[in-house]
Design the sequence.
């Protein structure tokens, strides 16, 4: 039974430092089952890295029957900049998996996760939030089809959030690459606004403990307060740029055609309205006052069947 930390080195940098991925490992009475928890893929998604602090301090190898590999920050350049992407190459790491060992900084980070950290994992927990300017109603994504779809769905439900989102993630996503590798995977979205708050961290911590119980790494049963609702996400984009005022709160129920946001010009004249394209719940909402033409304003979580 061990508690270890190390740095997985990636590449020398121009300032003489070495780019590396921080890795923390808790090993209980046996090595498997193994959960790989990965946070900090996008530098402005802060809840995952913050929640991992609590999990590292709380979990004890003596009470575990398996192992947890934690990557608190997969993308240090983006995390340092508090941006979705790093300044070095501007690539979104969750659109370029499996990466390249001889590529740019972000491609090398993606490659290290897929080739060296993910193999031998029994489940991958990809810990996300929404970017600066947005807030999200917490939900869990998992692959809709493929060899690990059923195991991933069970894990998504065990996490214990109100909404689960089966989807075909497309190329470059960790969901897609993990599925190709035969590793069950879920992607959790909690929080936003490039901040971390106590109640959101608590959701992440409780959900991860549920996952460890589901995997039998910890004893006991997962705690779910609601039966998860499967949803599909229906997005709304700004028809023009200007000042944005949200007319609904995150989590509010809307019917198709309801007003969700209003756009004003800089002289405060109303120039556009954004209405709900479907009936459901406001699951993602832009809270920044500025909006660009074509920028995401909100997303409706539309109930669906699995």
Sequence:
């Amino acid at each position: 039974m061990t508690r270890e930390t190390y740095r997985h080195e990636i590449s020398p940098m121009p300032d003489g430092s070495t780019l590396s991925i921080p890795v923390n490992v808790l090993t209980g009475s046996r090595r498997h089952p193994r959960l790989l928890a990965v946070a900090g893929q996008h530098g402005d998604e802060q809840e995952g890295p913050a929640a991992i602090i609590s999990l590292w301090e709380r979990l004890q190898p003596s009470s575990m029957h398996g192992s947890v590999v934690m990557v608190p920050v997969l993308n240090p350049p983006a995390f340092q900049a508090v941006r979705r992407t790093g300044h070095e190459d501007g690539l979104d790491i969750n659109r370029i998996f499996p990466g390249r060992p001889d590529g740019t900084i972000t491609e090398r980070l993606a490659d290290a996760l897929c080739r060296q950290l993910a193999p031998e994992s029994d489940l991958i927990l990809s810990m996300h939030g929404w970017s600066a300017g947005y807030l999200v109603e917490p939900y869990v994504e998992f692959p809709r089809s493929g060899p690990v779809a059923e195991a991933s769905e069970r894990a998504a439900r065990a996490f214990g959030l109100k909404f689960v989102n089966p989807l075909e993630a497309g190329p470059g996503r960790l969901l897609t690459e993990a599925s190709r590798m035969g590793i069950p995977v879920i992607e959790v979205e909690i929080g936003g606004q490039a901040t971390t708050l106590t109640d959101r961290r608590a959701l992440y911590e409780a959900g991860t403990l549920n996952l460890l119980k589901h995997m039998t790494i910890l004893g006991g049963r997962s705690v779910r307060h609601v039966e998860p609702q499967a949803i599909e996400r229906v997005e709304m984009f700004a028809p023009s740029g200007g000042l944005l005022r949200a007319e609904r709160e995150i989590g509010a129920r809307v019917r198709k055609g309801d007003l969700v946001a209003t756009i004003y010009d800089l002289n405060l004249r109303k120039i556009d309205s954004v209405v709900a394209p479907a009936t459901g719940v406001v699951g993602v909402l832009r809270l920044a006052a500025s909006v660009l033409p074509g920028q995401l304003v909100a997303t409706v979580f539309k109930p669906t069947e699995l």
Summary: The chain has two domains: 2-214, 231-303. Helices lie at 47-58, 76-81, 105-117, 149-159, 174-181, 198-214.
